[in-house]
Specification:
- The complex is a heterodimer.
- Among the domains of chain A are: 267-398, Flavocytochrome C3, Chain A, domain 1, CATH 3.90.700.10; 494-625, Fumarate reductase/succinate dehydrogenase flavoprotein-like, C-terminal domain (Methane Monooxygenase Hydroxylase, Chain G, domain 1, Up-down Bundle).
- Helices cover 36% and strands 14% of the residues of chain A.
- Chain A has 17 helices and 19 strands.
- In chain B, a hairpin with a 2-residue loop joins strand 3 and strand 4 (82-83).
- By secondary structure, chain B is of the alpha+beta class.
- Chain B is elongated, with a radius of gyration of 22 Å.
- In chain B, the strands form 2 sheets. Chain B has a 5-stranded mixed β-sheet with strand order 2-1-5-3-4. In chain B, strands 6-7 form a two-stranded antiparallel sheet.
- The longest helix of chain B has 19 residues, at 240-258.
- The chains are: A alpha+beta, B alpha+beta.
- Chains A and B meet through helix 3, helix 5, helix 6, helix 11 and helix 12 of A and helix 1, helix 2 and helix 3 of B.
């Protein structure tokens, strides 16, 4: 059994991080250059970590599977980033952001982590502005804000509908500066295919060059994974096509625990699926719910055009059910409400899986130019995809997989249970509990990279003798390389009949049906039969053309889908074991009469961290109790 | 975009550039793409063609893609001679099959420029853009040392204009569209974005000199004011930023030539 010590510092909640920073060990400036740190991934968390650690003087090697670090999927975040600046003088504070985030996560995150996140949120905005991130401003020159779900204050900073892009380009520019200065050794088109553990500590990685096929070993004093989430286990998601679980999954197989893998976020406002060929789903930012009103016809089977449905026949169901938060109810709640409406037969559009997001009132109130200035690029995206104008008729939207709150287990220092292995951003499980609030993913990625890891990695490295990292000729490196080469050979030599996408689609259907917005014991048990069968079928009949010695996109996808199939099984296992509903994890058996989540704090007020036991063996479920010292776990109420 | 009025499935003929590697010769190869929905994206159409090739035992067409919503800048096809295809202000991944009609022949090639060598089929190597950014496309701001974000008000007009430039997705369509394969729009967008902001002033001269000089060593051509770059840009970034950068470059060159040399520093006590 793995030991899961959260290492939460003692003392009052608001003092923990400050106190911890003054107590953890430091590495002296002359010694920093003797330590080498590997960073895998260069999204918000990875790029900010790599840049900041290099600026501190550590030797940093950064690996990204993209052709440039600027392409990481953080770039696609639209709406904004939260920070407790209280620039609007509307009653915001660090405590309120902490409380909203903890409550939004349905009391399944650690208090201390969430409080630290709220504390450093204010530094993030300062840092980004100093880097030249062009946040939206008011005419007076001050920063503008808007509201996001689950909050009653305006604390979201934004750059049109491209906030993630601008924040990532800020982190990318900081990283580029360090690459230009020779302080970061950047490897693009480089995918991590295994973690190397020596004497129980993470000391390196095995990398495949995606252009030449070359497989190389890299050793380091510490390894940081910032490789994002695993939403593509559902095949259809808002993630980029390349987003994958491989780095964290292979680390799991080397002993790192996977925490709460079943916590997935289904975003309420995405463009509905239009056909079987569809490769991805496109998000329509939550910021639209500031001005858009969500509704469905009151009667079932009402297939009149939206303009012909009079007010009296419309059901603005979020405003009706959650009057105090209205259209800005948290994502999990808004998604389930949309599902219920469609399940009742009141859905709209050709598939019946859709509801309206209507801007007519906002256009009437503010005028079309003001709406265009706020959301123009989102309306353009909608038009490109659907050939419909949201200025003239309401958008059709439906929930889609968007984010994964689960991930590798980490302690307060963001270190996994494998010493020397740190995990940042969406790849870890730490801050969002069972549901993430809008505009908090960007906040967490940058908090981890700019403001947490620079302190905590030093605490670990101070305990490692400079120059003690193992040679890449150590047997553990050789064995890991043999493991990776074996996988490549198996895929290439397996001349089956089906392309990789065939299996990815099948897995996605199983996951969406049984482990999506609503889950049941029977459904999850069925999935746990279907997924191993799919894995056998994949192994027997996947076809990967070409060779491993060149750029081969089928080979890349085969490895990723193989990992998704295994992860999917673990997610269903986790969802089956968690006999309660909380946040994004909704078990139909556990609900209040009004359809809201029914938590069981007594039995499940803990983190479930799964530990790999070997191929074909059932994983062990470890638990870390969530001890709430300062907040009462209560029933979430957005009414 | 030309909308197809029908939801009927239709078919097109593709002539796709196939090239096994940077040193191998390439050629156009013909493929039939059948039973297409007008609501498919162009890249989803390539997915379908690739799955058919895989089932037949042939190697699928390598093409660059990731976010599929026009923001990551990975996708990079030239479609019927136009970088990112027929639409205005969109990337290849935002091109939908409703832009084409039944029986069309569609030519698909990689972005072509000396500074962007072909890696395989439709994929090119755009590392040169990263190299230019590493030379100076940043504002130095160490984590933890920033003043309060509202301490420095920035006029909304300046911030909005900076944002117009900052939208660049680094795809390289501007280079592919330019007959000289010039990178001026890409470089000027970054120089413009950072130069418009008060935070960007300290490094303004150094930045423009370093970025332009690096650009010149990487095999990009010169700008001859044809503005094909702006027309092909998926974010419609204005060529006005090129003029702005030329002014910055000239001023920086003079200041650099005439600046007084500071006295050398020494160690502390």
């Amino acid at each position: 059994m793995a030991t899961l010590d959260s290492k939460i510092p003692s003392g009052p909640l608001a003092d923990k991080w400050r106190k911890h920073k003054t107590e953890i060990k430091l590495v002296n400036p002359a010694n920093k250059r003797k330590y080498e740190v590997i960073v895998v991934g260069a999204g918000l968390a990875g790029a900010s970590a790599a840049a900041t650690l290099a600026d501190l003087g550590y030797k940093v090697k950064c690996f990204v599977f993209h052709d440039s670090p600027r392409r990481a999927h953080s770039i696609a975040a639209q709406g904004g980033i939260n920070a407790a600046k209280n620039y609007q003088n509307d009653g915001d504070s660090v405590h309120r952001l902490f409380y909203d985030t903890l409550k939004g996560g349905d009391y399944r995150a650690r208090e201390a982590n969430v409080h630290r996140l709220a504390e450093v949120s204010v530094n993030i905005i300062d840092q980004c502005v100093a880097q030249g991130v062009p946040f939206a401003r008011e005419y007076g020159g001050l920063l503008a804000n808007r509201s996001f779900g689950g909050a009653q204050v305006s604390r979201t900073f934004y750059a049109r509908g491209q906030t993630g892009q601008q924040l990532l380009l800020g982190a990318y520019s900081a990283l580029s500066r360090m690459v230009g200065a020779g302080a970061v050794d950047l490897h693009t088109n480089s995918e991590m295919l295994d973690l190397v553990v020596v004497d129980g500590q993470a000391k390196g990685v095995i990398i495949r060059d995606l252009v030449t096929g070359e497989i190389t070993r890299h050793s380091a004093d510490a390894v940081i994974l910032a490789t994002g989430g695993y939403g593509n286990v559902f095949n259809h998601s808002t993630s980029a096509r390349g987003s994958n679980t491989t780095a964290i999954w292979r680390a799991y197989k080397r002993g790192a625990c996977m925490a709460n893998p079943c916590y997935t976020q289904i975003h309420p406002t995405c463009i509905p699926v239009s056909g079987d060929y569809q490769s991805k789903l496109t998000l329509m930012s939550e910021s639209l719910r500031n001005d858009g009103r969500i509704w469905a016809p009151r009667k079932t089977g009402d297939n009149r055009a939206p303009a012909e449905i009079p007010e009296g026949d419309r059901d603005y169901y979020l405003e009706r059910l959650y009057p105090s938060f209205g259209n800005l109810a948290p994502r999990d709640i808004a998604s389930r409400a949309a599902k219920r409406v469609c399940d009742e037969g009141r859905g709209v559009g050709p598939t019946g899986l859709g509801v309206y997001l209507d801007f007519a009132d906002a256009i009437h109130r503010l005028g079309e130019p003001a709406v265009r200035e706020r959301y123009g690029n989102l309306f353009d995206i909608y038009h490109e995809i659907t050939a419909e104008s949201a200025y003239k008729s309401p958008m059709r939207i439906y929930p889609a997989v968007h984010y994964t709150m689960g991930g590798l287990w980490v302690d307060y220092n963001l270190m996994s249970n494998v010493p020397g292995l740190f995990v940042l951003g969406e790849a870890n499980f730490s801050d969002h509990g069972a549901n993430r609030l809008g505009a908090s993913a960007l906040m967490q990625g940058l908090a981890d990279g700019y403001f947490v890891i620079p302190y905590t990695v030093g605490d670990y490295l101070a305990g490692q003798k400079p120059g003690s990292r193992p040679s890449v000729d150590a047997p553990e490196f050789k064995q890991a390389e043999v493991n990776v080469r074996g996988m490549t050979t198996r895929f290439i030599s397996n001349k089956g009949q089906q392309p990789v996408s065939y299996f990815h689609k099948k897995l996605g259907k199983i996951m969406w049906e049984h482990c999506g917005m609503a889950r049941t014991k029977a459904g999850l048990e069925a999935a746990l039969q279907k997924i191993p069968a799919l894995r056998d079928e994949f192994n027997a009949s996947v076809n990967v053309p070409g060779s491993g010695d060149t750029l081969n996109q089928s080979l890349e996808q085969a490895g990723r889908v193989a990992d998704f199939i295994e992860l999917g099984e673990l997610m269903c296992r986790d969802a089956l074991t968690r006999e309660e509903s909380c946040g994004g994890h909704f078990r139909e058996e556990y609900q209040h009469p009004d359809g809201e989540c029914k938590r069981d704090d007594e039995k499940f007020g803990h983190v479930a961290a799964w530990e790999f036991q070997g191929e074909g063996k059932a994983p062990v479920r470890n638990t870390e109790p969530l001890n709430y010292e300062f907040t009462k776990m209560s029933v979430r109420n957005y009414k | 975009m030309v909308a197809v009025n029908t939801q009927q499935p239709f078919s097109v003929t593709l002539r796709v550039w196939r090239q096994a590697g940077p040193a191998q010769p390439g050629k156009f190869v013909e493929y039939a793409a059948k039973d297409l929905s007008p609501n498919m994206s162009f890249l989803e159409m390539l997915d379908v063609v690739n799955d058919e090739l895989t089932v037949k035992g042939e190697e699928p067409i390598a093409f660059a893609h990731d976010c599929r919503e026009g923001i990551c800048g990975t996708c990079s096809c030239t479609i019927n001679g136009k970088p990112h295809g027929p639409g205005k202000g969109i990337a290849t991944c935002q091109t939908y099959m409703r832009s084409f009609k039944d029986g069309d022949t569609i030519f698909v090639e990689p972005f072509r420029a000396r500074a962007f060598p072909v890696v395989k089929d439709l994929i090119t190597d755009r590392t040169a853009f990263d190299t230019i950014t590493q030379a100076g496309g940043f504002i130095t701001a160490r984590a933890g040392s920033a003043p309060d974000a509202n301490a420095l008000p920035i006029p909304k007009g300046d911030a909005d204009l900076a944002m117009d430039a900052a939208q660049c997705i680094g795809c390289g369509a501007c280079v592919a569209a330019c007959k000289n394969a010039s990178a001026m729009l890409f470089v000027s967008a970054k120089v413009g974005h950072l130069g418009l902001l008060p935070q960007g002033q300290a490094e303004r001269d150094r930045r423009v000199l370093a970025m332009v000089n690096t650009m010149d060593t990487l095999g990009f051509g010169s700008c001859t004011n044809q503005y094909e770059c702006s027309a092909a840009c998926p974010k419609l970034i204005s060529h006005d930023f090129i003029a702005r950068m030329n002014r910055d470059y000239l001023k920086a060159t003079f200041r650099d030539a005439f600046k007084p040399a500071p006295a050398g520093g020494g160690g502390g006590a």
